[in-house]
Amino acid sequence: MFKDRTKFTQMADPLLKEKFPQKGLFQALAVAAMCLQEDYETRPDMDDVVEALEQITVKKSEEKDKAGESSKSSKTAGHAESFRSQKSVGTERA
């Protein structure tokens, strides 16, 4: 599934109607591929996954800023921050 780049756009949400940067799609799919490794020891920690996804959204925001568009916090970045908050709450209890 992850070997044929020509099929990558088929894995994206059809509601996006191909209105997304291909580079961002490739980066997100690379993260997904790492998460699907058979050997659990080679899979990334969730912290690493969140950080990788944040980097993708940060790059997108920077590109928008350079293009003169206003930068708004993306839904994904909000989920990542929410995940971090929940994790820190969980560690405080321990």
UniProtKB/TrEMBL annotation:
Location relative to the cell: Membrane
Keywords associated with the record: Kinase, Membrane, Serine/threonine-protein kinase, Transferase
Compositionally skewed regions (Polar residues) per UniProt: 83-94
Domain of life: Eukaryota
GO terms for MF: protein serine/threonine kinase activity
Sequence segments annotated as region (Disordered): 58-94
Feature: compositional bias, Basic and acidic residues: 58-69
GO CC, one annotated term: membrane
Protein name: Serine/threonine-protein kinase PBS1-like protein
